[in-house]
Amino acid sequence: MMDIMKKAAPERGLFVPGSSLFARPVSLKRDKFVINDGAQSIQLRGGPYQFDELELLIKTEKNIISFTTETDSAREWALADGCIEDLDDIIFKLTSRSVKKIFGDLSSPLLMGVVNATPDSFHDGGKYLDVNSAISRAHSLIAAGADIIDIGGESSKPGAVPVTAKEEIERVIPVIKEVVGFGVPISIDTKKPSVMEAAIIAGASIVNDITALSGDPRSIGLLKELGVPVILMHMQGSPVDMQNKPYYEFAPLDIFEYLHHRIMICLDAGISKSNLIVDPGIGFGKNLDHNIAILHRLSLFHGLGVPIAIGISRKSFIAALSEGEISEQRLPGSLAMAIWAYNQAVQILRVHDVAETKQALKIYKAIVDDDL
């Protein structure tokens, strides 16, 4: 694991040959709260957030150096240190607008309601294994305000036993065929190309893959052919072994590099960038420290130039930070995380509790947006 050296201000000579540059917007503010005090405010990806400061992280062979400064000062430093092209590329990705697909403008986080048609998911396994109960669950989530319904037929909790594509299809396709008539986009949560294809034919319009399309070599070609949005999630290992001593030099940067690599593979294969979304994969091959580090620097992933999705609902790291509560008792922590993600301008929140999350965000936004 790499040490982080924090600098109070930019210094010449920090970016040496072999270094990698990363940057994240800090102190994100909604448009109406931006005060022009001489610093140049930059709009984040065409949405309602602006920033005028960046945390720059320089990764060398031995350590990571970080400092926070205004964007203009950051560019002056980068020009002097020979990495202005790297920084300008990051700023371009932070500011480039997303193409409006089925998601609208993504100016406020979309709520992706979870329907687990499985017997063994960590929170609600077995509750919606029956087709009718899964359909009813989807209907209630939509009534509560879900923008997307994410349907999965295979658990990905730590230690979960894999199921065959045939079994997964039998669990999800009857549900998708009924839920598609409810008028809300459906995401299929799977890593198997045959399940992806069957789900899209049945009416799903988004693929959510915990392997970032690396689980099967046929997946990338299929997604190019299908032409639908795909969520590329990071996972170290597989659900069977992912929690067996996961290791990172520095989790946020390692995961950023991995997702960047997967994006480039998708683009090289002909998948449109407007169809790509990333998810850092909280809890998937990460320990508590890794999860906290990722969440602390969540805005870093805007530098990938695509929307961010995140699943933090009811997960065990909430219990680890609190009093060891079981998943049924982790709603308050889930809502706290949803508000944190909102403040980091995350575009898609994957949640079990749509009504509660929607209310929490609505109340929070009403207070912080009140300029009386």
Please characterize this protein's 3D structure:
- This protein has 372 residues and is α/β, with parallel strands linked by helices.
- It has two domains: 4-95, no CATH class; 110-368, TIM Barrel (Alpha-Beta Barrel), CATH 3.20.20.
- The chain is 35% helix and 18% strand.
- The protein has eleven helices and 15 strands.
- It has helices at 71-81, 84-95, 131-143, 165-179, 193-202, 219-226, 251-268, 288-296, 316-321, 331-343, 354-368, and strands at 4-6, 20-26, 29-30, 42-43, 49-51, 53-59, 64-70, 110-116, 148-152, 186-189, 206-209, 230-233, 276-279, 309-311, 348-351.
- The protein has an eight-stranded parallel β-sheet with strand order 13-12-11-10-9-8-15-14. A four-stranded mixed β-sheet has the order 1-7-6-2.
- Strand 9 (148-152), helix 4 and strand 10 (186-189) form a beta-alpha-beta unit.
- The protein is globular, with a radius of gyration of 21 Å.
- The termini are far apart.
- The model has no long low-confidence stretch (mean pLDDT 91).
